[in-house]
Design goal:
Blueprint (H helix, E strand, L loop, with lengths): L5 E9 L4 H14 L3 E7 L8 E9 L10 E6 L2 H7 L3 E10 L15 E5 L1 H7 L6 H13 L3 H11 L5 H22 L15 E5 H11 L4 E4 L6 H14 L2 E4 L3 H13 L4 E5 L1 H6 L1 H9 L5 E4 L18 H6 L8 E3 L4 H18 L3 E3 L3 H4 L2 E5 L68 H13 L4 H4 L3 E3 L6 E8 L3 H14 L3 E6 L1 E3 L3 H9 L1 E8 L5 H9 L6 E5 L8 H9 L3
Parallel strand pairs: 1-4, 4-5, 5-6, 8-9, 8-10, 10-11, 11-13, 12-13, 16-17, 16-19, 19-20
Antiparallel strand pairs: 1-3, 2-3, 7-14, 12-18, 15-17
Amino acid sequence: MQKRKDFIWKMGGQQGEGIESCGEIMATILAKEGYSLYSQRLFASRIKGGHTTFALRVALEQIMSIGEGVDFLLSLDQETVDMHGSEVRDGGYIICDSKVNPDFSKFEGTKINCLSLPISETAMKQGSLLMRNIVALGMSVALLGFDTKMFKDAITEKFAKKSQEIIDKNLAAFDDGHSLVMEKLGDVEIDTLPAPGKKDQMFLLGNEACALGAIAAGSRFMASYPITPASEVMEYMIKTMDKLGSTVVQTEDEIAACMTAMGGVYAGVRGFTCTSGPGLSLMAESLSMASMAELPMVVIDVQRSGPSTGMATKVEQSDIDAACYNAHGDYSGIVISPTSIEECFYEIQKAFNLAEMYQCPVIFMPDLQQGLNKQSVPSFDLNRVPINRGKMMKESDLPELVQPNYFKRFELTEDGISPRTIPGMKNGLFLSTGLEHNEEGKPAEAPTMHVAQTDKRFRKLETVADNYEPFLNNAKYDEADVLVVGMASSRGAIEEAVAEFDQEGVKVNHLQLRLIKPFPAKQLQPFFDAAKKVVIVEHNKTGQLANLFKINMHKKHKISSCLKYDGNPFTKSYVKNAIKEVL
């Protein structure tokens, strides 16, 4: 029997039918067994009803994207067959609930195997349609050739707080589903995935990784307002607050959230807030104040499709301009983006460090594909990113103040970064407002002071790219046919496309950008110069990332865009076709 390297399983139906929980059970078990996983939920912006799918890519080696095509499609309705049947690869399987009298006519004469099986009827044998997802799980395990014991153990654990009767009925539903497929297949052999051996890994959302990273960075204060697709960050912080002694404040809106987080930062804690595009717009004035007051706060912006409410459950990378330019005046701040779910953990820690090192707001920008989907990652190293609080002064080191003098919190230093004290420190008293100020924080409107303080706020950011790795470097050629640059979740699709070009003898370099503002032009220019063409891959209509390249880079005539803004993630083929157009 042939051993495959990966497969993609997808289940679809209506929201509220247990589709996600079915996928979660399967994914949790396979992650424990050492498989590399990447999951994707597609769902409508409503609580119940509307088409939804849960896709799971399972592989033997690390994967960074959901991939393309489907090997096993399990459908609870005809809509799933109609919408996703075309994704099924030759030799793949479609199973649909016989209750809906599925129409498989368009697959006649193809190499796709279509099975109409009594999912609902089998669930009702155990007394409830709610067990359809467990029946479907049994069917999936049969198709994929996995051992049933570990899944049955997981079902028992999942319903451990229920009665034994409920546990037994769910186990029976699983067995019935498994038997239906085994009987239908008979002696047919299906390519299976060999066991990889257990690994020390985690399977989690990017949002959960962000929350864990904030905790590892020493943050114990969060103020936020719930918003899709960012709410899981706050939810995770709430779950852990009692154990860690943290404080989480759910405010009345995003303005209050940003200002409350700023208050925590002013008091000396590592405070942060979390939002998405609409909330980021509301935070604009507060961020400008944080820039003026040089408050080191972190804002997580999990990007979604816009403008306005847009498509709240679909991916986009269209907040780049807002993150860079939304705050009024000569706003000085930092914008960074993680290149993977794993980096959501490590880079958010660096965001807290950068905020305190440069005493300014840092906007941390994953996208929805990272935030709301899960990936298996190596267990996190809690010591990889040491905490750096910048020029935070100790009370014992402060010289005695003579009234009416205040501490020079905004001292005009050579590097633009001033010593920092926090309220309550003896001899550390200063004023902090949104007004232009002198070195002690006292309001000042003298032209020379405004120029000096403005220059200071920008001068301090000149070394950010020297103290932070501005991009993931996958460039292997001294001279390349094409340089591809992406951000956030596009990494996996780009890496897979580049790997195929390598096999075809086409020299394609790849950089995945982390530092967006201040733009790392000096660090990028050598790679830019070494390529004949440059393709910028991003999820928006207007080429916001490409525009930053055009503003900051020489030889901008090389630049082309690969844009996708339909709410779906990039695929290898989509990226590859865009690169082919410039070859």
